[in-house]
Design a protein that fits this description.
This protein has 28 helices and 31 strands.
């Protein structure tokens, strides 16, 4: 382990020193860099110090470039290219030392490369040297990962940096805050200025804002980000001419391993655009997030590489202390598909057994393996297929590699290779302002206004490189048909085939094959297409994804390339608009319907399930609750309270609506509309849902009615707590005790009624009522109801169900 501050010479001096060690005689020192720009610059700097040019003792390999010769001892290579190398040659023949630069960045490829190198060293190459370097890291976990590796700490030649906090005003836009801080730095400080912004869009807006506000005549404003051409990047990195100052608006590409001569001031927006993968949708989106404390320290260090410097931070100091100490490792949040393929190629499907500082989570790897199976890269057991090995050899993202190989097997690789180059460039032609990738391809091939010539040239070179690699991998079949741009994209992104759903003046809504919603600006020409194949999706984590690029696609084209994945399916579903079940046969591709026709004889159980869904969505009012059904519901609720050990099914409204099919299926068979539910007997349905033991216990201990002394069966109102019976007072003569149920656990309340049916008393203790309350009731009632008996001793009087008429009245009748 080597820990040293920015500017200490980790990248440019250490590899040369290692190469001079006797143990490295006849062996190479391989330096792994996270970024192409850093690899090229570091190799150039080391070669210059040796009085050479890249390709002699120091060389490099990056995408589209290779400067390596027979005398090369130190070779700088990007992490992605190294993964190809170690997968093809796990013994790393001819390599004496691997140097992992800027390990604190925790890129997915960097973490994986180190894990594979550690296993290769353990199993095949115990003599292989490994060196991990960074300016900012927590050393102890890394030392444990590397097997108690010794730690070397260097103070280096860094200079003090004065931190100044310049948070934005309330509701102030980033460009305005930046304008104000740049003017302050130009006025108060010396040297050129390096500004860190989250991405290309913010850099472009900042350029416009600064130019509009007016800069001193001796200032040059430049941009630095990954999608610029080599010439533009080189211009941004050159020192400012004598007497001039430079303002460089940069992305995270300038954080590490890159020295811009003459920088004395850093202005840090404190933001970065980072990949965040959603395993539920299968989509990876770039989100703008606050940088960690370690990243902020790394950025500030750019101001102190050549002398004392100043760093303006556009956020509060208190907020800084609340930020995470280290960046979130990409292996925990980024696109897991390349990782899943690399692990399968290595023979470690889930990564177990490999030394990761943070093991890849199964919640990401599982869906990624499912997609690799769909692409034909893995078989059903999770083993890599011949097609998967071919994908790995191409060095492209697995989606793009599958697209290119499939087209190449039909003898139509050229357009697929150009499309893969365009998509790999991520914005090489974004200046053309096109979301239609078919049009972008035409611009790439034919040129046109708004196209960056240098960027287009680089894309074409990458396409030619991909095509050369494909020729050595693909097994070409004769007689293949050319695939449209939409079909090519659909091969790469089968889960992002999209069907139009709705339109508004602002947005046009689509549904993706994975079932997720996506939308596009209605003014975009792509919004006119009923079907799309989508490549790029953006937007925040909530709400529909934003379609950023894609191409038109026709149902017949989907049928052509996905014939094995398309079939007629019976669809019986609830339609909320008509409040009925709709039954159709649909020709479906994942969540999308290509064609539809009526289903004459739907499965009755499927129809019942759909109607149950409609009931759940429509609410409790959609069911015909009668007083009798409510009485059964209350009786069952009382049973659950009294005998919980019997494990009664829940009968509250919320539980019944959550799963209507469980207790209503037999009643719903043959029905298709909510209006047909009026004849349902919900009470019987609730009772039918009980087991034999539960029904027996209910009828025995909690009957629906109780017999009173008059001999009449009176209904029990279980909705009350405790339950109550309503009965005329004369019917209870002779009842010494209040009726009890449930093995004596439950005492009923008795609502005693007058002969006219009006309540005169409510009692839970009849013995007390007869002795204490009845005399008063008798005094009040016998004058009002003289035809009815009001005995002095109600316990000795016979209970009567009907009124007793006077004798004279009886004779007259």
């Amino acid at each position: 382990m080597l820990q040293a501050p920015p500017g200490a010479g980790k990248t440019t001096r250490v590899p040369l020193a290692v190469a001079e060690h006797p143990a490295m005689a006849g062996r190479k020192v391989l330096v792994l860099e996270p970024r192409r720009l850093a690899a090229r610059l570091a190799a150039g700097h080391m070669a210059t110090n040796l009085g050479e040019t890249p390709g002699e003792r120091v060389g490099y390999r990056v995408r589209l470039e290779r400067k390596v010769g027979p005398k090369t001892q130190v070779e700088l290579v990007t992490d992605g290219l190294f993964l190809r190398q170690i997968q093809e040659d796990p013994e790393l023949q001819g390599i004496g030392c691997l140097i992992f630069d800027e390990v604190h960045e925790r890129g997915l490829e960097s973490d994986l490369a180190l894990a594979l190198a550690l296993e290769a060293r353990s199993a095949l190459r115990p003599d292989l040297w490994l060196l991990a370097m960074s300016a900012t890291l927590e050393a102890e976990p890394w030392q444990q990962l590397l097997g108690a590796a010794p730690l070397i700490t260097s103070e280096g030649r860094s200079y003090p940096v004065d931190l100044r906090w310049r948070p934005p005003e309330p509701r102030e836009r980033l460009e305005r805050s930046l304008q104000r801080t740049v003017k302050e730095a130009l006025r108060e400080d010396e040297g050129s200025i390096l500004v860190f912004l989250p991405g290309q869009a913010e850099i472009r807006r900042a350029q416009q804002a600064l130019l509009k506000s007016g800069l001193p005549a001796n200032c040059d404003l430049m941009a630095l980000f990954g999608d610029l051409s080599k010439q533009q990047q080189a211009a941004a990195l050159e020192p400012a001419p004598a007497g001039r100052r430079k303002i460089v608006l940069a992305s995270a590409i300038a954080e590490t391993s890159v020295t811009i001569e003459g920088i004395g001031v850093v202005i840090d927006a404190g933001l970065a655009r980072l990949p965040r993968h959603d395993p539920r949708s299968g989509m990876t989106r770039l989100e703008t997030l606050p940088v960690s404390q370690a990243t902020a320290t790394q950025r500030a260090g750019r101001a102190g590489r050549l002398g004392p410097g100043v760093c303006y931070r556009l956020w509060e100091e208190a907020e800084h202390r609340a930020r995470p100490a280290q960046p979130t490792p990409e292996i925990l949040a980024g696109d897991p598909l390349p990782l899943a393929l690399e692990l399968a190629l290595w023979g470690a499907e889930d990564g177990s057994g490999l030394a990761f500082l943070d093991p890849p989570p199964e919640r990401l790897l599982g869906p990624a393996r499912d997609l690799l199976r769909r692409l034909g890269a893995l078989d059903q057991s999770g083993q890599v297929t011949a097609h998967g090995r071919a994908l790995g050899r191409l060095g492209l993202h697995p989606r793009l590699a599958h697209m290119v190989l499939t087209a190449a097997e039909q003898g139509k690789a050229a357009q697929a290779c150009r499309l893969a180059a365009l998509l790999s460039g991520r914005g090489l032609l974004r200046g053309a302002g096109r979301s239609d990738l078919g049009q972008q391809l035409s611009l790439l091939e034919d040129g046109g206004s708004g196209v960056d010539r240098a960027a287009a040239s680089e894309a074409k070179a990458l396409a030619r490189q991909i095509e050369r690699h494909v020729k050595g991998v693909a097994q070409r079949r004769e007689g293949g048909t050319a695939l449209s741009v939409g079909q090519l994209l659909a091969l790469a992104y089968p889960d992002r085939v999209a069907k139009k759903q709705a339109e508004t003046p602002e947005w046009t809504r689509y549904r993706l094959a994975n079932g997720r919603p996506a939308e596009i600006d209605s003014a975009d020409p792509l919004a006119l297409e009923p079907w799309l194949a989508v490549a790029d999706l953006g937007g925040s984590g909530s709400g529909p994804a934003r379609i950023q690029s894609g191409a038109a696609l026709a149902p017949a084209e989907i049928e052509e390339i996905f014939a094995d994945a398309i079939a007629w399916q019976d669809r019986v579903a609830w339609d909320h608009a008509s409040r009925s079940v709709v039954a159709r046969q649909e020709r479906r591709f994942d969540a999308l319907t290509l064609a539809s026709r009526p289903l004459v004889q739907p499965d009755p159980h499927a129809q019942a399930a759909a109607l149950a869904e409609g009931i759940a969505r429509s609410g409790v009012g959609s069911l015909p609750w009668s007083p009798a059904a409510r009485a059964v519901q209350a009786r069952l609720a009382a049973a659950a309270r009294l005998f919980p050990e019997a494990d009664w099914p829940p009968v509250d409204d919320a539980s019944l609506l959550a799963d209507p099919l469980t207790w209503l299926e037999a009643d719903l068979l043959g029905l298709a509309k909510l209006s047909e539910l009026e004849t349902l007997d919900l009470g019987s349905a609730l009772l039918r849902h009980l087991s034999y033991e539960q029904r027996s216990l209910l009828d025995r201990e909690l009957p629906a009615k109780v017999t009173v002394p008059s001999g009449r069966a009176v209904g029990i109102d279980y909705a009350s707590d405790p339950p109550v019976i309503s009965v005329k007072l004369q019917e209870m003569f002779g009842a010494e005790e209040t009726p009890r149920l449930g093995q004596g656990r439950l005492s009923l309340r008795v609502e005693l009624l007058s002969p006219g049916g009006r309540p005169v008393a409510v009692s839970g203790d009849l013995a007390h009522f007869w002795t204490e309350t009845y005399p008063q009731v008798r005094g009040e009632m016998r004058g009002r109801y003289p035809k009815h008996p009001w005995p002095d001793d109600p316990l000795a009087a016979p209970a009567q169900a009907k009124a007793v008429a006077r004798r004279g009245t009886q004779r007259k009748r």
